[in-house]
Amino acid sequence: MENESTRILAEIIKKRRTRKPVQFSKDPPSIEIITSLIDIARHSPNHHRTEPARFYLLNQEKIEQLGKMFGETLEGNGDDSVRVEKGKRKAKEWGEAPGIILVTCHTDTSSDLVSKNPAVIEEDYATCSCICQNLLLLLESENIASKWSTGAVWKHPDFAEKLEIQNPSTERVVAIIFYGYSEQKVPSRNLTPLERHLNSY
Ligand SMILES: Cc1cc2nc3c(=O)[nH]c(=O)nc-3n(C[C@H](O)[C@H](O)[C@H](O)COP(=O)(O)O)c2cc1C
Predict the structure, then answer these.
(1) In angstroms, what is the span from residue 148 Cα to ligand 1's centroid?
(2) 119-175: pLDDT as tens digits
């Protein structure tokens, strides 16, 4: 690769791997760093300039509440001992995470824009996904490990109220991003040979 910035970017993209939050160090990265990375990550392609991403940077109290709600969601009515066990394990795992950013996508489906362009719903979600990947790469470049989860904690009846979601009826969760310092080494991933997925004419 001739260009130095391409080489650096390629290295970060390939080096980023999902790391286990249970192995994260208990000391969280500073809020100032995380906030500035979120701000940079927002610079992603965005059709109609809707700026759909909303970020919830959780403190320790909210992290514990989120873990508890996820545990309860998994446990269900308590009839299934396997689910109950998993619920307890996940409540602890999530509740002890050093850092969590919740990313939601806000699209007002009753707006004129959406009624004229229904594709905005998917396009907004795509923008939020780009922002999440930007954020994971920025974290990686600061040697901060991460994991993107979509564990369905938002099914919990108290989710919107406890997390103080701004617009509960028009925001959907895109990512629950766990972050923290980690010693866990994960090799870069081998993908299917490109020839099988690339059609070039
Ligand atoms: C949209 C999305 C949702 C994900 N949800 C979960 C999840 O709920 N639980 C989980 O363990 N990992 C989740 N992951 C992480 C993937 O399992 C992980 O990215 C995949 O195994 C590839 O590993 P890598 O990130 O190390 O390349 C999610 C990733 C994405 C992009």
Answers:
(1) 6
(2) 999 999 999 999 999 999 999 999 999 999 999 999 999 999 999 999 999 999 999
The predicted-structure confidence for 111-121, as pLDDT tens digits, reads as follows 999 999 999 99
Instruction: Please classify residue 83 by burial: count the beta carbons closer than 10 Å to its beta carbon, then call 0-12 exposed, 13-18 middle and 19+ buried.
Output: middle
CA of 132 to the centre of ligand 1 (A): 12
Domain spans in the chain, listed from the N-terminal domain onward: 38-183
pLDDT bin (cut points 50, 70, 90) of residue 1 is confident
- Candidates 15, 17, 148: which one to mutate for ligand 1, based on the most atoms within 8 Å of Cβ? 148
Ligand 1 atom nearest the C-alpha of 174 is: 1
CATH tag for 38-183 (out of 3.40.50.12780, 3.40.109.10, 3.40.50.720, 3.40.50.2300): 3.40.109.10
The model's pTM is: 0.97
Kind and range of the H or E element at 176?
strand 171-180
Exposed / middle / buried, residue 183 (Cβ in 10 Å: 0-12, 13-18, 19+) = exposed
